[in-house]
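Model: Ready when you are.
Researcher: Fold this.
Model:
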Amino acid sequence: MAAAALTALLVFLLTAAASALEPGHGHVPPHLTGCLSNNMETFNCRWSVGSFQNLSEPGDLRLFYYNRTPLTAPQENWSECPQYSMERPNECFFDRNHTSIWTTYTIQLRSRDQDVLYDETPVEVSFIVKPDPPVELNWTLMNVSLTSAHFDIMLSWKPPRSADVETGWLTLLYEVQYRDVDSDEWKAMNLVKSPHRSVFGLQTNVNHEVRVRCKMLGGKLFGEFSDSVFVHISSKVS
Protein backbone atom coordinates (compact mmCIF):
# COMPACT_ATOMS: atom_id res chain seq x y z
CA MET A 1 0.00 0.00 0.00
CA ALA A 2 2.78 2.41 0.94
CA ALA A 3 4.61 1.71 -2.33
CA ALA A 4 1.44 2.29 -4.35
CA ALA A 5 0.76 5.56 -2.55
CA LEU A 6 4.33 6.71 -3.14
CA THR A 7 4.05 5.85 -6.84
CA ALA A 8 0.78 7.75 -7.14
CA LEU A 9 2.31 10.79 -5.42
CA LEU A 10 5.31 10.69 -7.75
CA VAL A 11 3.07 10.53 -10.83
CA PHE A 12 1.04 13.47 -9.51
CA LEU A 13 4.13 15.60 -8.93
CA LEU A 14 5.56 14.82 -12.37
CA THR A 15 2.24 15.64 -14.03
CA ALA A 16 1.97 18.93 -12.15
CA ALA A 17 5.52 19.88 -13.10
CA ALA A 18 4.90 19.13 -16.78
CA SER A 19 1.66 21.09 -16.70
CA ALA A 20 3.42 24.10 -15.22
CA LEU A 21 5.77 24.16 -18.20
CA GLU A 22 2.95 24.29 -20.74
CA PRO A 23 1.91 27.67 -22.24
CA GLY A 24 -0.70 29.40 -20.13
CA HIS A 25 0.56 27.91 -16.87
CA GLY A 26 2.87 29.38 -14.29
CA HIS A 27 4.53 32.78 -14.41
CA VAL A 28 4.76 34.80 -17.61
CA PRO A 29 7.90 36.96 -17.51
CA PRO A 30 8.00 40.54 -18.83
CA HIS A 31 8.36 40.50 -22.61
CA LEU A 32 8.37 42.72 -25.68
CA THR A 33 5.05 42.68 -27.53
CA GLY A 34 6.23 44.31 -30.76
CA CYS A 35 7.46 47.38 -32.59
CA LEU A 36 5.48 49.28 -35.23
CA SER A 37 5.89 52.31 -37.49
CA ASN A 38 3.00 54.09 -39.20
CA ASN A 39 5.14 56.17 -41.55
CA MET A 40 8.69 54.69 -41.82
CA GLU A 41 9.96 57.88 -40.17
CA THR A 42 9.39 57.06 -36.50
CA PHE A 43 8.44 53.93 -34.58
CA ASN A 44 7.47 52.69 -31.16
CA CYS A 45 8.05 49.51 -29.17
CA ARG A 46 5.80 48.10 -26.49
CA TRP A 47 6.10 45.51 -23.77
CA SER A 48 4.06 43.66 -21.18
CA VAL A 49 4.87 42.99 -17.55
CA GLY A 50 3.39 39.51 -17.97
CA SER A 51 2.32 38.11 -14.63
CA PHE A 52 4.89 40.26 -12.77
CA GLN A 53 2.44 42.93 -11.65
CA ASN A 54 4.99 44.17 -9.12
CA LEU A 55 6.91 45.61 -12.11
CA SER A 56 4.13 47.94 -13.25
CA GLU A 57 5.60 51.21 -11.98
CA PRO A 58 7.47 53.50 -14.42
CA GLY A 59 11.14 52.61 -14.45
CA ASP A 60 10.67 49.06 -13.18
CA LEU A 61 11.33 47.88 -16.73
CA ARG A 62 13.70 49.71 -19.05
CA LEU A 63 14.16 49.45 -22.80
CA PHE A 64 17.60 49.59 -24.39
CA TYR A 65 18.58 49.45 -28.04
CA TYR A 66 21.61 49.02 -30.22
CA ASN A 67 21.52 50.13 -33.87
CA ARG A 68 23.83 48.09 -36.05
CA THR A 69 24.93 49.98 -39.18
CA PRO A 70 27.83 49.38 -41.59
CA LEU A 71 29.73 52.19 -39.85
CA THR A 72 29.06 50.93 -36.34
CA ALA A 73 32.11 50.15 -34.26
CA PRO A 74 32.59 46.47 -33.38
CA GLN A 75 31.56 47.02 -29.77
CA GLU A 76 27.86 47.28 -29.02
CA ASN A 77 27.00 50.77 -27.79
CA TRP A 78 23.68 50.41 -26.01
CA SER A 79 21.40 53.38 -25.46
CA GLU A 80 18.25 53.69 -23.40
CA CYS A 81 14.83 54.45 -24.85
CA PRO A 82 14.90 58.01 -26.24
CA GLN A 83 11.37 58.81 -25.04
CA TYR A 84 9.17 56.79 -22.72
CA SER A 85 5.50 57.47 -23.45
CA MET A 86 3.62 59.54 -20.88
CA GLU A 87 0.20 58.67 -22.36
CA ARG A 88 0.60 54.92 -22.78
CA PRO A 89 2.44 52.82 -20.21
CA ASN A 90 5.03 50.30 -21.34
CA GLU A 91 5.84 52.07 -24.59
CA CYS A 92 8.97 53.67 -26.03
CA PHE A 93 8.89 56.20 -28.88
CA PHE A 94 11.73 56.64 -31.37
CA ASP A 95 11.53 60.06 -33.04
CA ARG A 96 13.07 60.97 -36.40
CA ASN A 97 16.45 61.64 -34.81
CA HIS A 98 16.56 58.09 -33.46
CA THR A 99 15.06 56.25 -36.44
CA SER A 100 17.25 54.76 -39.14
CA ILE A 101 15.95 52.90 -42.16
CA TRP A 102 17.46 49.72 -43.61
CA THR A 103 19.56 49.06 -40.54
CA THR A 104 18.97 46.52 -37.80
CA TYR A 105 18.08 47.48 -34.25
CA THR A 106 18.46 45.10 -31.36
CA ILE A 107 15.87 45.88 -28.69
CA GLN A 108 16.24 44.65 -25.11
CA LEU A 109 13.89 44.76 -22.12
CA ARG A 110 15.81 44.93 -18.85
CA SER A 111 15.17 45.28 -15.14
CA ARG A 112 15.51 48.62 -13.37
CA ASP A 113 19.07 47.82 -12.27
CA GLN A 114 19.83 46.20 -15.68
CA ASP A 115 20.89 42.98 -13.98
CA VAL A 116 18.08 40.98 -15.59
CA LEU A 117 17.54 40.72 -19.35
CA TYR A 118 13.90 39.74 -19.85
CA ASP A 119 13.60 39.81 -23.62
CA GLU A 120 15.43 40.73 -26.82
CA THR A 121 14.34 41.11 -30.44
CA PRO A 122 15.79 42.40 -33.74
CA VAL A 123 13.91 45.17 -35.56
CA GLU A 124 14.18 46.62 -39.06
CA VAL A 125 11.92 49.65 -39.46
CA SER A 126 11.12 48.91 -43.11
CA PHE A 127 9.64 45.55 -42.02
CA ILE A 128 7.32 46.91 -39.30
CA VAL A 129 5.41 49.60 -41.23
CA LYS A 130 1.68 49.46 -40.46
CA PRO A 131 0.02 52.55 -41.95
CA ASP A 132 -2.82 54.45 -40.35
CA PRO A 133 -6.26 54.12 -41.97
CA PRO A 134 -7.11 56.08 -45.13
CA VAL A 135 -9.42 59.04 -44.53
CA GLU A 136 -12.37 60.81 -46.17
CA LEU A 137 -13.76 57.74 -47.91
CA ASN A 138 -16.60 58.78 -50.23
CA TRP A 139 -18.56 57.46 -53.19
CA THR A 140 -20.22 58.74 -56.35
CA LEU A 141 -22.89 57.01 -58.42
CA MET A 142 -21.62 56.19 -61.91
CA ASN A 143 -24.34 54.17 -63.56
CA VAL A 144 -27.57 52.24 -63.02
CA SER A 145 -28.36 49.27 -65.24
CA LEU A 146 -31.25 49.41 -67.70
CA THR A 147 -33.17 46.96 -65.54
CA SER A 148 -32.42 49.02 -62.40
CA ALA A 149 -31.24 45.80 -60.76
CA HIS A 150 -27.59 46.84 -60.37
CA PHE A 151 -25.47 49.97 -60.21
CA ASP A 152 -21.83 51.06 -60.29
CA ILE A 153 -20.02 53.53 -58.05
CA MET A 154 -16.68 55.30 -57.90
CA LEU A 155 -14.93 55.30 -54.52
CA SER A 156 -12.37 57.89 -53.49
CA TRP A 157 -10.35 58.50 -50.35
CA LYS A 158 -7.22 60.22 -49.11
CA PRO A 159 -4.01 58.61 -47.82
CA PRO A 160 -3.35 58.56 -44.07
CA ARG A 161 -2.31 62.00 -42.89
CA SER A 162 0.73 60.48 -41.19
CA ALA A 163 2.08 58.95 -44.42
CA ASP A 164 4.30 61.01 -46.72
CA VAL A 165 3.12 59.72 -50.08
CA GLU A 166 3.48 62.98 -52.02
CA THR A 167 7.29 62.85 -52.01
CA GLY A 168 7.31 59.12 -52.64
CA TRP A 169 8.77 58.26 -49.25
CA LEU A 170 5.91 55.80 -48.82
CA THR A 171 4.07 54.02 -51.62
CA LEU A 172 0.81 52.54 -50.43
CA LEU A 173 -1.42 49.80 -51.75
CA TYR A 174 -5.13 50.02 -50.95
CA GLU A 175 -7.62 47.22 -50.44
CA VAL A 176 -11.35 47.94 -50.75
CA GLN A 177 -13.82 45.63 -49.05
CA TYR A 178 -17.61 45.72 -49.26
CA ARG A 179 -20.57 43.68 -48.07
CA ASP A 180 -24.32 43.59 -47.70
CA VAL A 181 -24.91 44.96 -44.18
CA ASP A 182 -27.00 41.88 -43.40
CA SER A 183 -24.04 39.61 -44.20
CA ASP A 184 -20.90 38.82 -42.22
CA GLU A 185 -18.93 38.08 -45.39
CA TRP A 186 -16.74 40.84 -46.79
CA LYS A 187 -15.68 40.84 -50.44
CA ALA A 188 -12.10 42.03 -50.95
CA MET A 189 -11.07 43.68 -54.21
CA ASN A 190 -7.66 43.63 -55.85
CA LEU A 191 -5.06 46.02 -54.47
CA VAL A 192 -4.64 49.40 -56.16
CA LYS A 193 -2.06 52.18 -55.85
CA SER A 194 -4.43 55.04 -56.64
CA PRO A 195 -6.75 56.54 -53.98
CA HIS A 196 -9.86 55.71 -55.98
CA ARG A 197 -11.46 52.75 -57.68
CA SER A 198 -14.75 51.68 -59.22
CA VAL A 199 -17.08 49.01 -57.89
CA PHE A 200 -19.38 47.40 -60.43
CA GLY A 201 -22.57 45.40 -60.15
CA LEU A 202 -23.84 46.34 -56.72
CA GLN A 203 -27.43 45.29 -56.17
CA THR A 204 -30.10 47.95 -55.84
CA ASN A 205 -32.44 48.05 -52.84
CA VAL A 206 -29.64 46.64 -50.68
CA ASN A 207 -27.67 48.47 -47.99
CA HIS A 208 -23.97 48.09 -48.77
CA GLU A 209 -21.10 48.84 -46.39
CA VAL A 210 -17.72 49.81 -47.86
CA ARG A 211 -14.33 50.28 -46.19
CA VAL A 212 -10.68 50.57 -47.23
CA ARG A 213 -7.31 49.84 -45.67
CA CYS A 214 -3.73 50.06 -46.87
CA LYS A 215 -0.24 48.66 -46.54
CA MET A 216 3.19 49.73 -47.70
CA LEU A 217 4.28 48.52 -51.14
CA GLY A 218 6.39 45.44 -50.45
CA GLY A 219 5.19 45.33 -46.85
CA LYS A 220 3.18 42.63 -45.12
CA LEU A 221 1.25 44.56 -42.47
CA PHE A 222 -2.14 46.06 -43.31
CA GLY A 223 -3.27 49.00 -41.23
CA GLU A 224 -6.69 49.32 -39.66
CA PHE A 225 -9.75 49.93 -41.81
CA SER A 226 -11.11 53.37 -42.53
CA ASP A 227 -14.50 54.47 -41.30
CA SER A 228 -17.17 52.77 -43.37
CA VAL A 229 -19.50 54.45 -45.83
CA PHE A 230 -22.95 53.07 -46.55
CA VAL A 231 -24.37 52.91 -50.04
CA HIS A 232 -28.01 52.39 -50.98
CA ILE A 233 -29.63 52.99 -54.35
CA SER A 234 -33.30 52.38 -54.96
CA SER A 235 -34.30 50.41 -58.03
CA LYS A 236 -36.13 53.51 -59.22
CA VAL A 237 -33.80 56.47 -59.61
CA SER A 238 -35.45 59.77 -60.38
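Researcher: Now this one.
Model:
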Amino acid sequence: MKTLTDILKNVEIEAVCGNLATSISEISFNSKNIAANGLFAAVKGVQTDGHNYIESAITNGAMAVLLENMPSDLKSSVTYIRVKSVAKALGLVACNFYGNPSEQLKLVGVTGTNGKTTIAGTLHNAVREMGISAGLISTVVYKVNDREIEATHTTPDQISLNKLLAEMVAEGCEYAFMEVSSHAIDQHRIAGLHFSGGIFTNLTHDHLDYHKTFKNYIEAKKKFFDFLPK
Protein backbone atom coordinates (compact mmCIF):
# COMPACT_ATOMS: atom_id res chain seq x y z
CA MET A 1 0.00 0.00 0.00
CA LYS A 2 1.06 3.57 -0.58
CA THR A 3 1.63 5.95 2.29
CA LEU A 4 0.09 9.37 2.79
CA THR A 5 3.45 10.88 1.88
CA ASP A 6 3.28 9.05 -1.47
CA ILE A 7 -0.21 10.13 -2.41
CA LEU A 8 0.13 13.72 -1.16
CA LYS A 9 2.95 14.51 -3.59
CA ASN A 10 2.51 18.02 -5.09
CA VAL A 11 -0.46 18.75 -2.81
CA GLU A 12 -0.24 22.14 -1.10
CA ILE A 13 -0.74 21.20 2.55
CA GLU A 14 -1.65 23.86 5.10
CA ALA A 15 -1.45 21.71 8.24
CA VAL A 16 -1.08 18.09 9.36
CA CYS A 17 -2.11 16.42 12.58
CA GLY A 18 -0.98 12.81 12.68
CA ASN A 19 1.40 10.47 10.88
CA LEU A 20 2.09 10.86 7.15
CA ALA A 21 3.79 7.45 7.11
CA THR A 22 0.35 5.85 7.48
CA SER A 23 -0.39 3.30 4.74
CA ILE A 24 -3.61 3.91 2.81
CA SER A 25 -5.72 1.12 1.29
CA GLU A 26 -8.08 3.31 -0.74
CA ILE A 27 -9.38 6.85 -1.18
CA SER A 28 -13.05 7.81 -1.07
CA PHE A 29 -15.41 10.74 -0.58
CA ASN A 30 -18.23 8.39 0.47
CA SER A 31 -18.21 7.96 4.25
CA LYS A 32 -20.48 4.90 4.05
CA ASN A 33 -18.26 2.91 1.71
CA ILE A 34 -14.83 3.80 3.05
CA ALA A 35 -12.58 0.77 3.51
CA ALA A 36 -10.47 0.04 6.56
CA ASN A 37 -7.27 2.12 6.47
CA GLY A 38 -8.76 4.39 3.82
CA LEU A 39 -8.46 8.13 3.28
CA PHE A 40 -11.72 10.08 3.41
CA ALA A 41 -11.89 13.28 1.36
CA ALA A 42 -14.34 15.74 2.92
CA VAL A 43 -15.37 17.37 -0.35
CA LYS A 44 -17.66 20.39 -0.20
CA GLY A 45 -20.21 19.70 -2.92
CA VAL A 46 -23.07 21.69 -4.38
CA GLN A 47 -25.63 20.10 -2.06
CA THR A 48 -23.65 18.43 0.73
CA ASP A 49 -20.49 19.11 2.74
CA GLY A 50 -18.23 16.14 3.37
CA HIS A 51 -17.07 17.71 6.64
CA ASN A 52 -20.44 16.68 8.10
CA TYR A 53 -19.54 13.01 7.54
CA ILE A 54 -16.01 12.88 8.95
CA GLU A 55 -17.06 11.09 12.14
CA SER A 56 -19.04 8.55 10.12
CA ALA A 57 -16.04 7.90 7.86
CA ILE A 58 -13.75 7.34 10.86
CA THR A 59 -16.28 4.98 12.43
CA ASN A 60 -16.33 3.01 9.18
CA GLY A 61 -12.55 2.62 9.06
CA ALA A 62 -10.95 5.80 7.71
CA MET A 63 -7.41 6.30 9.02
CA ALA A 64 -6.86 9.68 7.36
CA VAL A 65 -9.02 12.66 6.45
CA LEU A 66 -8.42 15.31 3.79
CA LEU A 67 -10.25 18.45 4.88
CA GLU A 68 -10.43 22.24 4.82
CA ASN A 69 -11.46 22.81 8.45
CA MET A 70 -9.97 20.90 11.37
CA PRO A 71 -12.61 19.44 13.73
CA SER A 72 -12.48 20.35 17.40
CA ASP A 73 -12.32 16.69 18.42
CA LEU A 74 -9.21 15.10 16.89
CA LYS A 75 -8.77 11.33 17.13
CA SER A 76 -5.20 10.29 17.98
CA SER A 77 -5.40 7.27 15.67
CA VAL A 78 -6.39 9.38 12.64
CA THR A 79 -4.23 11.64 10.47
CA TYR A 80 -5.84 14.93 9.43
CA ILE A 81 -4.52 16.85 6.41
CA ARG A 82 -5.79 20.40 5.94
CA VAL A 83 -5.76 21.94 2.47
CA LYS A 84 -7.29 25.02 0.88
CA SER A 85 -9.49 23.02 -1.50
CA VAL A 86 -10.27 19.34 -0.90
CA ALA A 87 -11.71 18.96 -4.41
CA LYS A 88 -8.52 20.22 -6.04
CA ALA A 89 -6.25 18.25 -3.71
CA LEU A 90 -8.28 15.09 -4.30
CA GLY A 91 -7.46 15.25 -8.01
CA LEU A 92 -3.74 15.17 -7.22
CA VAL A 93 -4.19 12.50 -4.55
CA ALA A 94 -6.15 10.29 -6.96
CA CYS A 95 -3.49 10.71 -9.65
CA ASN A 96 -0.76 9.69 -7.20
CA PHE A 97 -2.77 6.80 -5.74
CA TYR A 98 -3.35 5.24 -9.17
CA GLY A 99 0.20 5.83 -10.41
CA ASN A 100 -0.45 8.96 -12.50
CA PRO A 101 -2.03 7.05 -15.40
CA SER A 102 -2.63 10.16 -17.53
CA GLU A 103 1.15 10.58 -17.83
CA GLN A 104 1.31 7.15 -19.47
CA LEU A 105 -1.35 7.94 -22.08
CA LYS A 106 -1.80 10.46 -24.87
CA LEU A 107 -4.83 12.04 -23.22
CA VAL A 108 -6.97 14.31 -25.40
CA GLY A 109 -9.78 16.35 -23.87
CA VAL A 110 -12.79 17.63 -25.79
CA THR A 111 -14.70 20.58 -24.38
CA GLY A 112 -17.44 22.93 -25.58
CA THR A 113 -21.19 23.30 -25.26
CA ASN A 114 -22.14 20.93 -28.08
CA GLY A 115 -20.43 18.18 -30.06
CA LYS A 116 -18.18 16.72 -27.36
CA THR A 117 -19.69 13.23 -27.48
CA THR A 118 -19.59 13.00 -31.27
CA ILE A 119 -16.00 14.19 -31.58
CA ALA A 120 -14.61 12.07 -28.73
CA GLY A 121 -16.42 8.98 -30.03
CA THR A 122 -15.32 9.57 -33.62
CA LEU A 123 -11.68 9.96 -32.59
CA HIS A 124 -11.82 6.76 -30.55
CA ASN A 125 -13.43 4.84 -33.42
CA ALA A 126 -10.86 6.19 -35.88
CA VAL A 127 -7.78 5.11 -33.92
CA ARG A 128 -9.34 1.72 -33.13
CA GLU A 129 -9.92 1.21 -36.87
CA MET A 130 -6.19 1.84 -37.33
CA GLY A 131 -5.44 -0.89 -34.81
CA ILE A 132 -4.31 1.48 -32.08
CA SER A 133 -5.28 0.79 -28.46
CA ALA A 134 -7.38 3.59 -26.99
CA GLY A 135 -9.86 4.44 -24.28
CA LEU A 136 -12.96 6.64 -24.31
CA ILE A 137 -14.73 8.63 -21.60
CA SER A 138 -17.97 10.16 -22.85
CA THR A 139 -21.51 10.97 -21.82
CA VAL A 140 -22.97 7.79 -23.33
CA VAL A 141 -20.29 5.18 -22.62
CA TYR A 142 -16.80 4.56 -21.26
CA LYS A 143 -14.54 2.24 -23.24
CA VAL A 144 -11.25 0.48 -22.59
CA ASN A 145 -10.33 -0.46 -26.16
CA ASP A 146 -13.62 -2.12 -27.21
CA ARG A 147 -14.79 -3.14 -23.74
CA GLU A 148 -17.75 -0.99 -22.73
CA ILE A 149 -18.45 0.33 -19.24
CA GLU A 150 -21.68 2.09 -18.30
CA ALA A 151 -21.19 5.86 -18.13
CA THR A 152 -22.28 7.68 -14.98
CA HIS A 153 -21.21 11.26 -15.79
CA THR A 154 -19.89 13.18 -18.79
CA THR A 155 -16.67 13.54 -16.80
CA PRO A 156 -16.38 11.19 -13.79
CA ASP A 157 -15.22 12.25 -10.32
CA GLN A 158 -11.50 12.47 -9.58
CA ILE A 159 -11.22 8.97 -8.12
CA SER A 160 -13.32 7.14 -10.73
CA LEU A 161 -11.56 9.02 -13.52
CA ASN A 162 -8.05 8.03 -12.46
CA LYS A 163 -9.13 4.46 -11.73
CA LEU A 164 -10.55 4.23 -15.26
CA LEU A 165 -7.42 5.74 -16.81
CA ALA A 166 -5.34 3.23 -14.83
CA GLU A 167 -7.42 0.41 -16.34
CA MET A 168 -6.64 1.79 -19.80
CA VAL A 169 -2.93 1.79 -19.03
CA ALA A 170 -3.10 -1.76 -17.66
CA GLU A 171 -4.79 -2.93 -20.87
CA GLY A 172 -2.19 -1.30 -23.11
CA CYS A 173 -4.04 1.78 -24.32
CA GLU A 174 -1.89 4.38 -26.05
CA TYR A 175 -4.56 7.08 -26.39
CA ALA A 176 -7.51 8.22 -24.32
CA PHE A 177 -10.22 10.58 -25.54
CA MET A 178 -12.47 12.20 -22.97
CA GLU A 179 -15.22 14.76 -22.76
CA VAL A 180 -14.42 17.58 -20.37
CA SER A 181 -17.53 19.32 -19.07
CA SER A 182 -17.56 22.82 -17.59
CA HIS A 183 -18.96 21.39 -14.35
CA ALA A 184 -16.00 19.00 -14.11
CA ILE A 185 -13.53 21.81 -14.72
CA ASP A 186 -15.12 24.03 -12.08
CA GLN A 187 -15.29 21.17 -9.57
CA HIS A 188 -11.60 20.25 -10.10
CA ARG A 189 -12.39 16.75 -11.39
CA ILE A 190 -9.52 17.02 -13.89
CA ALA A 191 -7.01 18.41 -11.37
CA GLY A 192 -3.63 16.73 -11.72
CA LEU A 193 -4.28 15.18 -15.13
CA HIS A 194 -1.68 15.51 -17.90
CA PHE A 195 -3.33 16.28 -21.23
CA SER A 196 -1.45 15.88 -24.50
CA GLY A 197 -3.95 18.07 -26.32
CA GLY A 198 -7.39 19.61 -26.26
CA ILE A 199 -10.23 20.30 -28.68
CA PHE A 200 -12.72 23.17 -28.39
CA THR A 201 -16.06 22.71 -30.18
CA ASN A 202 -18.18 25.81 -29.54
CA LEU A 203 -19.68 27.95 -26.79
CA THR A 204 -23.33 28.95 -26.43
CA HIS A 205 -25.42 30.43 -23.63
CA ASP A 206 -26.00 27.16 -21.79
CA HIS A 207 -25.44 25.77 -18.27
CA LEU A 208 -26.08 29.22 -16.78
CA ASP A 209 -28.21 27.58 -14.09
CA TYR A 210 -24.88 26.37 -12.67
CA HIS A 211 -22.38 29.03 -13.76
CA LYS A 212 -24.82 31.94 -13.24
CA THR A 213 -23.15 34.21 -15.83
CA PHE A 214 -21.77 33.68 -19.32
CA LYS A 215 -18.46 35.15 -18.15
CA ASN A 216 -18.17 32.47 -15.46
CA TYR A 217 -18.95 29.83 -18.08
CA ILE A 218 -16.21 31.16 -20.36
CA GLU A 219 -13.73 31.26 -17.47
CA ALA A 220 -14.50 27.63 -16.60
CA LYS A 221 -13.80 26.53 -20.16
CA LYS A 222 -10.60 28.59 -20.26
CA LYS A 223 -9.25 26.78 -17.19
CA PHE A 224 -9.16 23.55 -19.18
CA PHE A 225 -6.73 25.03 -21.69
CA ASP A 226 -4.52 26.15 -18.82
CA PHE A 227 -3.96 22.41 -18.18
CA LEU A 228 -2.54 21.86 -21.66
CA PRO A 229 1.21 21.72 -22.37
CA LYS A 230 2.64 25.06 -23.43
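Researcher: Key takeaway?
Model: DSSP finds eight helices and 13 strands in the chain.
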